[in-house]
Design brief:
285 residues; Rossmann fold
């Protein structure tokens, strides 16, 4: 097993400031060989010191290895004071390797960990998903009515999270096009730990439903636009307000999740729209 002594290469453009960034790794091999491994991107240098000549900086880094091969005593100078803004970490590390492949893997790990760590992947913001939405979606999926990969609104399948107007951020929970356009919004008020948030969610969904006619293109409206509201927890204080407001925008009907008759009626509407036989069972309530 061979051991290479390593030092982090740092760049300090301002002598009187304690600002620096890591640029690469210096490896000192037992046979006297000096190797400099530079980060794949030096953009962070520009962020810290916009006037830096990146091309010259890379040349200086390459020259660092040549200088140390010629005069190993320069190592102490780079460690204690630096030259031209380049410094070496005072405390050395090491890499143990048995062959060239192990050496390369160790260098890549060191660069990735200390010099250019990978930024965490940004998480896409997800819309809140209620239990009622999941129940309706699962019911449609079990019947084979949901759109699959690559299918759109013209494929006579139910589209979940359908954007009526992407530019304005207005959408509905479910959309289906046959001879008419069918829009459905769901609001779950069974567990309102934050009543204000739930109220705002319901208001937002009813607003989208109310705008649906105006935002639906003429070539998609067919024989008209049918708008449905489904509410769970309709007997709560917030639920009663939501039901009252829903009646103002849902021309296709307001359906209470806890009512088997309501849900049978709603799913019968969708069965006819999907040109399917009457449904055997209702949504779980």
């Amino acid at each position: 097993m061979t051991r290479a002594i390593t030092h982090l290469i740092e760049y300090r453009p301002y002598r009187m400031r304690n600002e620096c960034c890591a640029l690469g790794l210096l490896a000192l091999l037992p046979d006297g060989e000096c190797r400099v491994h530079i980060a794949s991107s030096l953009r962070k240098v520009r962020a810290m010191h916009p006037a830096t000549d990146i091309g010259k900086l890379r040349d200086d880094l390459e020259q660092l290895a040549s200088d140390l091969r010629r005069d190993p005593q320069l190592l102490e100078l780079y460690r204690t004071g630096g030259v031209g803004g380049l410094n070496l970490s005072a405390e050395p590390g090491y890499i143990d390797f048995a062959n060239a492949d192990e050496y390369e893997r160790a260098v890549r790990w060191a660069l990735g960990y200390m010099v250019e760590p990978t930024a965490p992947t940004a998480q896409r913001e997800r819309a809140p998903v209620s239990r009622l939405f999941v129940e309706v979606k699962t019911y449609f999926a079990n019947l084979g009515w949901l759109a699959g990969m690559g299918q759109g609104i013209r494929d006579h399948r139910i589209i979940q999270r359908y954007a009526i107007s992407a530019d304005e951020g207005i959408g509905v929970d479910f959309a289906l096009l046959n001879t008419s356009m069918h829009y459905m919004q769901t609001v779950d008020l069974r567990t309102a730990s934050n009543p204000t948030q739930k109220r705002h969610e319901a208001q937002s969904k009813w607003f989208a439903l109310g705008m649906a006619d105006a935002l639906t293109p003429g070539n998609l409206s067919g024989n008209g636009v049918q708008r449905y509201a489904v509410i769970a927890g309709a007997e709560t204080d917030e639920g009663k307000k939501a039901v009252k407001a829903a009646h103002r925008v849902a021309n296709g009907g307001v359906f209470v999740h806890e009512s088997a008759n309501d849900m049978d009626e709603l799913m019968a509407i969708y069965a006819r729209a999907m040109q399917q036989d009457p449904l055997p069972a209702s949504l779980p309530t």
